Amino acid sequence: MTGERPTFLFDGDCAFCSRCAGFVERHIPTRAAVLPWQRADLDALGVSQQQADAAVQWIDPAGVAAGPDAIARLLRDAGSFWRPLGVALGAPPVRWLAWPAYRWVARHRDLMPGGTAACALPAADRH
User: For residue 78, which of 98, 14, 51, 70 has the smallest C-alpha distance?
Assistant: First the structure.
């Protein structure tokens, strides 16, 4: 990881993911750089292309978090009323439920609001 500023990576090739990232940039006051993984220096961040393609990533000096764990860290970083949401998302049993929900949304992101056919994961990744 370079610098002390956190980084939040999303799939810039997915319209649904890009809309969600836009919401984060407009409404959630995080310190993180919100970047499509396709434009990030993954080697410098310590994240593989496979990891970035599989789930959103949060990278900070404490390490890397993926999926709902990354979202929880982003929300905690934002402070204000976002922090309790991040704490709840990262705590059992919410965290246990968040992962299956995240995987379901990831598999069906082409059907989500703003999603397009380009958002669809390869068929092998959908089961």
Answer: 70
| pLDDT average per 10 residues of sequence, the chain (127 residues) | 83 90 97 97 96 96 97 97 97 96 89 76 53
Q: How many domains does the chain have?
A: 1
Residue 125 located in a structural domain: no
Q: CB of 57 within 8 A of CB of 8?
A: yes
Please check whether residue 67 lies inside any domain of the structure: yes
In a domain, 97, yes or no: yes
Q: What is the number of alpha carbons within 13 Å of residue 95 lying toward its C-beta?
A: 13
Q: Is the pTM of this model over 0.90?
A: no
